[in-house]
Design goal:
This protein has about 180 residues and is mainly alpha-helical. The protein is about 70% helix and about 0% strand. It has one domain: AhpD-like (Up-down Bundle), CATH 1.20.1290.
Length: about 180
């Protein structure tokens, strides 16, 4: 028995063991999820959490939902319910979340109607590609987490990790984990 599956308590443990190539993905996430675009950070994090939930990855779903929730609370908004149509998010973001569902669950059925529903809220074409990229990033992370048998964090650790990711970013959290590992 190698013990490899017991070795990893978090995604960053996996990343740090292969930092020479995993660092590029962390940089990609930093740019994708935190860069100012027409999609606010809380929507990006909501998409990541939503897709992770669809994929049965509680670790990713919980932390990205918490990031979205904290960001929303800071903005004084309500978070998404299970039903997108009944959620308290702005109308213009509902087609984005529905599109994310389709990207994850049945991307071969994406059609012009889906795109037009998003475009009617005057989103640029690159917002559509951004949603697809967030879904793909979530799918990658969900596979990494689930295949390494990484368990969801408890509520206290989840909130602390979410707050750290908000304050430090993805790359800042990686720097923190690297420094912690060296001690």
């Amino acid at each position: 028995m190698t013990g490899i599956l017991e070795k990893y308590g978090s995604v960053y443990d996996v990343f740090l063991d292969s930092w020479d190539y995993q660092s590029h993905f962390v940089n990609y996430l930093e740019s994708l999820m935190r860069k100012e675009t027409s999609l606010p950070t809380y929507i990006k994090e909501m998409i990541f959490a939503y897709v992770s939930g669809l994929n049965g990855c509680s670790y990713c779903k919980n932390i990205h939902a918490e990031i979205s929730k904290i960001t929303l609370k800071d903005m004084g908004k309500d978070s998404i319910n299970q039903n997108i149509d009944d959620s308290g998010i702005e109308e213009k973001f509902k087609p984005i979340l529905k599109f994310a569902h389709k990207v994850n669950e049945d991307n071969s059925s994406i059609n012009e109607e889906d795109i037009n529903e998003i475009k009617k809220y005057e989103f640029e074409d690159k917002a559509i590609s951004e949603v697809i990229s967030i879904c793909a990033a979530a799918q990658f992370m969900n596979t990494v987490v689930k295949s390494h048998k990484i368990q969801p964090l408890n509520d206290t650790m989840n909130i602390a990790s979410a707050k750290m990711m908000i304050s430090k970013g993805y790359d800042g959290l990686a720097d923190y984990m690297i420094a912690k590992r060296r001690k």
